[in-house]
UniProtKB/TrEMBL annotation:
Superkingdom to which the source organism belongs: Bacteria
Pfam families: Acyl_transf_3
Any single GO BP term: lipopolysaccharide biosynthetic process
Membrane-crossing residue ranges in chain numbering: 21-38, 44-63, 99-117, 170-189, 201-221, 233-249, 255-273, 293-315, 354-372
GO molecular function: acyltransferase activity, transferring groups other than amino-acyl groups
Organism name: Pedobacter cryotolerans
Keyword match Chloroplast: no
InterPro entries noted in UniProt: Acyl_transf_3_dom, Acyltransferase_3
Acyltransferase domain segment(s): 17-367
Protein name per UniProt: Acyltransferase
GO cellular component, as recorded: membrane
Length: 393
């Protein structure tokens, strides 16, 4: 879609509720991928799990806009570029660290799970979980998803250096170069030594998603001709990406999935976020701006944090009950009342588990939001010297 003088998004950074609605949709895809074997065992599972790339694109879009705005204001306020970056990092730290470290602290005290974290706590507490998982070739059930947060935190460190120190007129070319380099690196250095894609969790192989988010942020600051070229490029890329996606599903090719899956999801994310910037209309608008959807989108960070540990703890509790009763799983169904057996069967079914996991995860996320995230988020104003806009969340 080409923009016109009539359809132009706001230049200032302000809260866009539809982006929180999209956050909820993305975290729902990821949660379904991890919680529902009927999805995770299917050929389309790569695309459900790949929606973590949506968060990379969205984060980059928002962070790039914030940094560019701060960069412009720093000239007027006579702030040094280093100080701009430091203020940004302080604000990100206050937003991200408290809930993350509270999650790690809780996992450490959970019997049967915390021992793994204790053995590798340096990697997790220093946001290097992605590199630890890759080099150790381990995929811990309760904490493996933290690789994405490690990638995001590493992005927060180097991305401000690019946006702040490189002149605006060179940023578009820089972002395109970053995207191409990341894709080429994936194509060249592919390896599959285990059942998952170990290299895809390394930051250098995720940079195309961040670059695409950066391009979206630049889209509204460049010339109309460049804007039209970018739109055409992404439309063509999507037209090519859809059949490539079908080929990946049909062939179940690890190589094609490793190289192109994240890129395809990132291009789709670009389109979805761009549309939300202008504003979805009709039923989509009502859905994305629904109060429940908005709130779940706002707490999506904590939902993502807790969504893997909940099933692990849930089934460990079942194991402890069987062990306490000195029963094996089949014995339980033989020796107990039919109503109890029926209840256990319902609870342990995919739908039953999904409902139970959802209730527990959302409850923990609400507590995290109100007790940790909101109070610390309010402290961000202490690091707002007139440089940073204050969009919600």
């Amino acid at each position: 879609m080409t923009t016109s003088s009539v359809e132009t998004p706001p230049r200032v950074i302000k809260y866009n509720p539809q982006l929180d609605g999209l956050r909820f949709c993305a975290v729902l895809f990821v949660v379904c991928y991890h919680w529902l074997p009927i999805i995770s065992s299917h050929k389309v599972s790569h695309f459900f799990g790949g929606f973590v790339n949506f968060f990379f694109v969205l984060s980059s879009y928002l962070i790039t806009k914030i940094l560019m705005s701060a960069k412009d204001k720093s000239v007027t306020l006579k702030f040094s570029k280093i100080k701009v970056i430091l203020f940004f990092l302080f604000r990100r730290t206050i937003r991200i660290f408290p809930a993350y470290y509270m999650f790690l602290a809780l996992v450490l005290i959970i019997p049967g799970i915390g021992h793994h974290l204790k053995q590798h706590e340096v990697a997790y507490f220093s946001y290097l979980a992605n590199y630890y998982i890759f080099f150790a070739e381990q995929w811990p059930l309760a904490t493996s998803h933290l690789w994405t947060l490690a990638v995001e935190e590493q992005f927060y460190i180097f991305w401000p250096l690019i946006v702040i120190f490189i002149p605006n007129k060179y940023l578009l070319k820089t972002f395109i170069a970053v995207a191409l380099i990341s894709i080429v690196l994936r194509a060249i250095f592919y390896q599959s030594t285990t059942g998952f894609f170990p290299q895809s969790i390394l930051t250098q192989y995720c940079l195309d998603s961040f670059a695409i988010g950066g391009i979206l942020a630049l889209k509204f600051t460049i010339s109309k001709e460049q804007e039209r070229l970018i739109d055409r490029f992404f439309h063509v890329s999507l037209l090519i990406g859809i059949p490539v996606g079908f080929i990946i599903i049909l062939t179940n090719s690890f190589y094609l999935s490793f190289v192109f899956n994240g890129l395809i999801i990132s291009i789709i994310s670009y389109m979805l976020i761009k549309k939300a910037i202008f504003g979805y209309k009709g039923l989509l608008q009502k859905f994305l701006e629904n109060k429940v959807v908005l709130f779940l989108g706002q707490i999506s960070y904590s939902i993502y944090l807790y969504h893997l540990v909940v099933p692990v703890v849930f089934w460990k509790m079942f194991d402890l009950i069987y062990e306490h009763l000195n029963l094996t799983y089949p014995q339980f169904f033989i020796e107990h009342d039919n109503n109890i057996v029926l209840l256990v069967k319902i609870m342990s079914s995919q739908l039953g588990c999904f409902i139970i996991y959802s209730i527990i995860t959302i409850t923990l996320s609400i507590l995290s939001w109100h007790i940790i995230e909101v109070p610390f988020n309010n402290l961000k104003n202490l690091f707002n010297p007139g440089l940073a806009n204050k969009p919600k969340g």
